[in-house]
Amino acid sequence: MANTNTVITTWRENMQFHSTNPAGELIIDASPEDGGNGDGLRPKALMLSALAGCSGLDVASMIKKMKLEVEDFKIDITAELTDEHPKYYHKVSVDYHFYGKSLEEKKLQRAVDLSVEKYCGVMEMFRRFAEMTINTHYHNS
């Protein structure tokens, strides 16, 4: 049987929705300029959070497995929307930032590469519609 997820999203009021996720729940709302109250997360930006979260989980798992010393790690994503409707991200830049005293750059790059090229399903979905740029930055303290 295929592996499936079910998410139930219910309209609350105006432009606001309540959405359940297998591990929690969240509120989705449009910005005031789009008719909402701005009290929830934006759908397209949630896609970017999903991308960062998916790849971040992969990399964190490999940092643990490789016993690498990393003090901090963050992923910055900048995405450009098309001009025409339906607007979608057609250019996406993913920047991995690692912070620490003695970063093992080759191993960290391997962790990023494995996530980007092999493990992150959300990255693979993005590749179907966007030009992806991946950068890794090391901040040795």
Automatic annotation (TrEMBL):
Transmembrane segments: none annotated. SUPFAM superfamilies: OsmC-like. It holds the Pfam family OsmC. Gene3D superfamilies: 3.30.300.20. InterPro entries: KH_dom-like_a/b (IPR015946), OsmC/Ohr_fam (IPR003718), OsmC/Ohrsf (IPR036102). PANTHER family: PROTEIN YHFA. This is OsmC family protein. It comes from Galbibacter pacificus.
